[in-house]
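pls design
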């Protein structure tokens, strides 16, 4: 092993160790960011490839360019069907058989057609020794002897078995030629532009990412084309450090041209291909570009044509080609493989960072939408005020006092029209009736002035309006409003106001004896006495008249009197009603807001923490990439 190889191995080991630590550190993201976790795992797999000495050579090119013929020559066996029709429709992995083993065909199958690319990727990891065969999930395999009949039955296009979607890839072991040494794997790919398997197949992208060397085959009749250019672009996006070798398969169909004309046409086609390959950023040397008639080589190796000079010359040219590739590629494969491994790892890190950028951009959109909902609901909350802050009920004591005084005047007029003296019970009854009438009038007036039902209705309508505002906010946030039912709150009638406890009738109306005469009464309570009693009762209920120096407070408004406890009771009732409506609005606002926010980001705190982790992971990947 050269010093350069040792340095490359050391660099690969350091890179793999860093990436493995990142995978372990950020494995918690598998649930929340599966795409990034998968890319990170793939990055780790790419960085591990240096540990295994396997070397993958990908043979690609347009349909009928001679790929299968070349693969058979490299394998020194019939492993890839050749025909004037399209033959290769799925990848075949050809490798040298192990000592003591028979040549065989292994067919890998899976019934999960949606997961073929990941499964083929896993099979290649298994072949390279990165994964164990027992770790292949959902994949079954069958083994068959390497015979022309089995090649026809398992690989060739025209049989039903080869067209089933369950077959993933075939693996074939052969004696191998000079280029196929231990741990060298040749992958025979379907043609770019084939009817059944072409460049649009994601399998192409998957396998192209794993190649250590690309042998690009074109022919005089199937030279580089737009589809070939698309493949080179795809390869550049995934594995741009892989070296490329060009083999131009020379057909002799233009027999009417001179030798010089044919050679010039071949040179032009070869030059165009080299130019296009370099345009994609690949390094390709002129001495690794060959022009040869693969059909003649194949015929020249057959027993029947051993003595044909033209064919023998072509065989000799092919053997020189093998010697050059062996000396410059196979012998130097370790340095090439390690360099390509580092390049692939670097590109995979870029893909991982691109996935992180996509996720962060998506998260930024979610965060923006989340904040927009927060702002919309904040505006709805700020504009609505607080229903629970109801205005305290107050009584118009001046009006209520005037009701008592007016009742007193009316009662006094009645008393003054009747000059008969009154007994104790009659005098008391007159004053008590006056107080009862005051109670009824004040109760009716107080009920009208407070309008509790009207106030409750206003609160109900305001509550419904705010619920409607919240629903409109939900719609502006592109969400379906939550269902809700708003029920009216019951408001009991105000109890009758009792003024009687404010007057001691026994003390107010003294007992006087009465003596009946023939036509009249003598003694008892005169009209003047009763008027005095009424005035005193009115004063005790309503207090002093305006401007009176004594300024006595009446029972109606004094603390603990007739009205203040009732006002406290009414205020408590309306506070409960307004609080009920306010709570309903607040809970609906909170539930609507939380439901919409939860549909955008389930757990904002965890979401922000994960976003921070992604930013940190990206920076770690940048450091790792820059040190490769």
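designed seq:
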């Amino acid at each position: 092993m050269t010093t350069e190889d040792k340095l490359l191995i050391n660099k690969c080991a350091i890179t793999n160790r860093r990436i493995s630590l990142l995978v372990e550190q950020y494995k918690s993201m598998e649930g929340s960011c599966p795409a990034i976790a998968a890319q990170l795992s793939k990055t780790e797999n790419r960085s591990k490839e240096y540990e295994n000495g396997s070397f993958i050579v990908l043979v690609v090119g347009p349909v009928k360019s001679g790929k299968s013929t070349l693969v058979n020559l490299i394998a020194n066996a019939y492993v890839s069907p050749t025909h004037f029709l399209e033959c290769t429709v799925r990848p075949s992995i050809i490798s040298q058989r192990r000592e003591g083993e028979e040549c065989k065909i292994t067919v890998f199958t899976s019934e999960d057609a949606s997961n073929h690319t990941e499964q083929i990727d896993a099979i290649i990891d298994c072949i390279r020794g990165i994964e164990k065969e027992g770790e292949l999930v959902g994949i079954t395999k069958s083994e068959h002897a390497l015979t022309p009949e089995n090649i026809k039955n398992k690989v060739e296009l025209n049989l039903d078995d080869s067209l089933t979607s369950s077959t993933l890839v075939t693996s074939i072991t052969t004696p191998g030629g000079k280029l196929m040494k231990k741990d060298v794997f040749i992958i025979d790919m379907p043609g770019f532009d084939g009817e059944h398997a072409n460049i649009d197949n994601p399998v192409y992208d998957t396998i192209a990412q794993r190649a250590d060397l690309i042998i690009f085959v074109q022919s005089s009749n199937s030279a580089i084309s737009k589809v070939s250019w698309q493949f080179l672009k795809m390869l550049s996006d995934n594995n741009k450090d892989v070296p490329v070798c060009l083999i131009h398969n020379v057909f002799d169909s233009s027999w009417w041209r001179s030798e010089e004309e044919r050679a010039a046409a071949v040179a032009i086609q070869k030059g165009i291909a080299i130019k296009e390959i370099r345009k994609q950023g690949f390094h390709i040397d002129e001495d690794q570009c060959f022009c040869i008639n693969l059909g003649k080589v194949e015929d020249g190796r057959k027993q029947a044509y051993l003595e044909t000079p033209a064919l023998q010359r072509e065989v000799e040219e092919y053997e020189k080609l093998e010697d050059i590739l062996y000396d410059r590629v196979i012998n130097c494969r370790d340095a090439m493989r390690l360099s390509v491994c580092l390049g692939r790892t670097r590109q995979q890190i870029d893909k991982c960072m691109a996935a992180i950028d996509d996720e962060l951009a998506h998260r930024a959109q979610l965060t923006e939408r989340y904040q927009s909902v927060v702002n919309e609901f904040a505006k709805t909350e700020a504009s609505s005020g607080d229903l629970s802050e109801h205005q305290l009920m107050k009584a118009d004591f001046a009006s209520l006092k005037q009701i008592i005084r007016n009742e007193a005047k009316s009662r006094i007029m009645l008393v003054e029209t009747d000059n008969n003296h009154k007994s104790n019970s009659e005098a008391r009854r007159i004053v008590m009736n006056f107080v009862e009438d005051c109670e009824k009038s004040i109760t009716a007036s107080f009920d009208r002035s407070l309008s509790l039902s009207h106030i409750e209705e206003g609160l109900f309508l305001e509550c419904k309006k705010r619920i409607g505002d919240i629903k409109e906010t939900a719609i502006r946030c592109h969400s379906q409003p939550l269902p809700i039912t708003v029920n009216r709150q019951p408001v009991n009638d105000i109890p009758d106001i009792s003024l009687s406890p404010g007057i001691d009738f026994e003390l107010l109306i003294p007992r006087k004896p009465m003596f009946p005469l023939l036509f009249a009464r003598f003694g008892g309570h005169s009209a003047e006495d009763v008027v005095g009693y009424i005035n005193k009762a009115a004063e005790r209920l309503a207090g002093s008249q305006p401007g009176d120096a004594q300024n006595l407070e009446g029972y109606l408004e004094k603390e603990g009197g007739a009205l203040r406890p009732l006002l406290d009771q009414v205020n408590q009732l309306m506070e409960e009603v307004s609080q009920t409506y306010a709570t309903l609005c607040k809970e609906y606002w909170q539930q609507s807001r939380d439901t919409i926010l939860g549909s955008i980001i389930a757990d904002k705190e965890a979401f922000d923490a994960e976003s921070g982790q992604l930013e940190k992971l990206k920076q770690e990947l940048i450091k790792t990439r820059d040190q490769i």
